[in-house]
């Protein structure tokens, strides 16, 4: 196992983090002493000023649920098949679950992990765990047992909530974990009506509903001592080979929840279809954001085009989200799976730059698509392609090209810029000069768990370095061109894999495409395209290469075409590190 996983015990990480931020005894002075160094003196010298519980409460999204239970108690909160809860019931269930966790010995600062799809328990744990003063760690439900065991040890999780369909992976992970540690997390099984009665209960300590029944609905919530206390750990999604534990604070989660609600244009009581995994950046912070708006959460165990169309029409869904691959799945779905969209459905896409062709086709079906951009380290969404009214009159192709840009920072992110990472100078706003996207603000992570070196590297120069290459347009909107590690250098020229992929997606026979570098003795590297064809379509390598040369400078056109399924993470991101290894194994083209 990587040595950084053993660098620091979790308690030492907390001490280090709090020492560099603010301890609870200093919280008033930190946030009320707003002008101490100004020419007007400190707030203490201004007559009548006072910082106290009446005007300062540490920011935490826990309060969103309490508010929803007060003002919309009888309104629907969660729907899962035939199961339905209202906000009063959800609040009570979360209180009881928080109480039950404390009875299991969970205390402030402990980690509680999940291995769950988008089911009601996953939603409830987003509130119950921080209500108990603990830290939520949502593990990717598609990880194998080896990685799950590593992340359980790294996070030092004391409880693991696992879905019945993932129980085998969890049990194998605990068997592996037993070889390196004596203390295993308590295993809690989450089941539903489809759970078989013959399920193996080895290592299971509790069943979810029975555990919840032990709890007290009069439980007194353990509010954070500081709004900078950790609320969750999110492991990076796996587009690189080694996930890192990204630590979120209560403050950042609160702010990004509200910012994401604004990005989605969510008015009071929206209906949100959960197509984005809640384990990914805590579902873009929308478990908390939906409570803030007293909305209806439509939970889906599995995502398919038919389920999406059925849910949209049955529940009058107003909002949904997903990676471009989810949108691609929708626009290429069989006509028999579709239902007419008769009301406005807002769709947010993110995770990778979407091909304009996909955005255009989504509009044709009836979905109104906008793009957001961010990383796990920015609590998910950080920028959006904020739409100007005058763009409505543009031709569809131009609208789609504008929507493919990553845009401007949301209201909770202080600054986003495109900089030369060597000089830290901003690049020209010419739409051509590439630099690295960098962030600064309250919705940037606290750091990487037990990896101070990686944290310091990411924050070099006082900005968070994203690793994404982008240009900045004259209107200030940024447009991501590639990951730093994905840029292809052929004959001294930089080739954006995203630009090549956009052309490939415009080919009528191509369903999915990904471009990486292949070694070349003469050119150094050349573009290598992995493509998956649409069902019933045919195309060979020479035809696709010729098509690309007709739409790109010849040096940018792929010289190698590989026909196969493209590996993705559970959030729909293409795992280019796997494709890079495949291209490397092919050897030099010339």
Q: For the terminal residues, how far apart are their CA atoms?
A: 38 Å
**What is the CATH architecture descriptor of the largest domain?**
3-Layer(aba) Sandwich
CATH class of the largest domain: Alpha Beta
Total strands: the figure is 26
Query: What's the helix count?
Result: 19
What integer is the average pLDDT?
A: 88
What spatial order of strands do you see in the largest sheet?
2-1-11-10-12-13-14-15-16
Q: Could you state the CATH homologous superfamily of the largest domain?
A: ANL, N-terminal domain
User: In percent terms, what proportion of residues is strand?
Assistant: 15-25%
Overall domain count: 3
CATH third-level topology of the largest domain: Rossmann fold
Largest sheet: 9 strands, mixed
Rg measurement, Å: 24 Å
Shape: globular
Show unreliable segments.
Answer: 1-13, 15-40
Helix content: 25-40%
Topology:
Blueprint: H1 10-20, H2 27-32, H3 62-71, E1 76-80, E2 83-86, H4 87-103, E3 111-115, H5 120-131, E4 135-138, H6 145-155, E5 157-163, H7 167-177, E6 186-190, E7 204-207, H8 208-213, E8 230-235, E9 245-249, H9 250-263, E10 271-273, H10 281-284, H11 286-292, E11 296-298, H12 305-315, E12 319-322, H13 324-331, E13 345-349, H14 356-365, E14 367-375, E15 380-384, H15 396-403, E16 408-409, E17 415-419, E18 435-440, E19 447-448, H16 452-458, E20 464-472, E21 478-483, E22 488-490, E23 493-495, H17 497-505, E24 510-520, E25 524-533, H18 541-551, E26 560-563, H19 576-585
